[in-house]
Task: structure prediction
Amino acid sequence: MQMLDELKFDSNGLIPAIIQDYENNDVLMMGYMNREAVRRTLESGRVTFWSRSRQKYWVKGETSGHTQDVRSLAFDCDADTLLIKVVQKGGACHVGYRSCFFREVSPNGNSARIVGTKVFDPGAVYS
Amino acid sequence: MQMLDELKFDSNGLIPAIIQDYENNDVLMMGYMNREAVRRTLESGRVTFWSRSRQKYWVKGETSGHTQDVRSLAFDCDADTLLIKVVQKGGACHVGYRSCFFREVSPNGNSARIVGTKVFDPGAVYS
Result:
């Protein structure tokens, strides 16, 4: 996995990973990976983050079943951000939406409206 | 701009902003904004980052002419990442590609191939 040597991890050893829907190009979420999480993601073909809050590896969907199967993994010109296209099962967002970006700010910045689609009941999935 | 109070900026006062092409949903780049950069972006309708390397505001395209006109600004469930859809003039990437994510890693992680489209000559644009 020589390409891992090209990537630039931040002072915490992390790189942000944008997760994009392979089917329709919607941006689903962003998470963080350390070098080992990138390696596991490539090796298993399943998106694996480093959870900053829980300080552990986090195979996306391990609790909910809403896994992300990798279709491609790209990196940017500065090699400090990843873009991963996935086949998303269910919803990416832990509050039940297909995408975590389900709120849009009004042009004057004073309010937000829901633009996302709720695809599951988090109470049923995570209980 | 009351929604700015909802956003969570990191210990450096920054929030990552994913920039997405309004026309075809391609992810073009990621940059960072402080609170004032988000305000300027909403007020002007033109993407304005905080440049971490130059420590100054950076209206995208101010040198190249490759501006990003805002069509929508969304934020995620944790309110710590922005997703901004834009109309991109020219190319987003300073090395001449339409998107900064122009290199894709092979499944075994050993090599990368160019998957992006070069749309301008950086030597001509930035000289």
About this structure: Residues 23 and 118 of chain A are 18 Å apart (CA to CA).
